[in-house]
Amino acid sequence: KITLNDLSRFAGVSVRTLSTMFVSGTGFPPMRYLIELRLNHAMKLLRHTGHSIDQIADECGFPNRYYFTRMLAKYRKTTPAAFRARSDGGD
């Protein structure tokens, strides 16, 4: 597991400076960016595989299906089942 402290030490800047630079470059704070990457990958798996929600949550780095579902609801305003159903319908 790599932390922001690890990255800031490697880059030779403070955590605050690293976070500011990261937001400037990506538009997101580091942890939010990581969640976005995980959600995008999870949505691709929901759309194109028959994997279970548990498998997808695990493969995408979420600690469990409940946290994955919460993040999908918070940032995409949907649930895994609803997203998959819409995707199967030609979305």
Strand coverage percent: under 5%
CATH architecture: Orthogonal Bundle
Please identify the structural class as seen in this structure. Answer: mainly alpha
**Principal-axes shape call:** elongated
Distance between the termini: 36 Å
CATH superfamily: Homeodomain-like
Spans with pLDDT under 50 lasting ≥5 residues? none
- This entry's quaternary arrangement is single chain
**Which CATH class is shown?**
Mainly Alpha
What's the layout of helices and strands?
Elements: H1 4-11, H2 15-26, H3 30-48, H4 53-59, H5 65-76, H6 80-88
Helix pairs in contact: 1-2
Structural description of this entry:
- The chain has a single domain, classed as Homeodomain-like (Arc Repressor Mutant, subunit A, Orthogonal Bundle).
- Helices cover about 75% and strands about 0% of the residues.
- The chain contains six helices and no strands.
- The termini are far apart.
- About 10% of the residues are buried.
Question: Which descriptors would you attach to this protein?
Answer:
mainly alpha; 6 helices; Arc Repressor Mutant, subunit A; 91 residues
Question: How would you summarize this macromolecular structure in one to three sentences?
Answer:
By secondary structure, the chain is mainly alpha-helical. The protein is built from six helices and no strands.
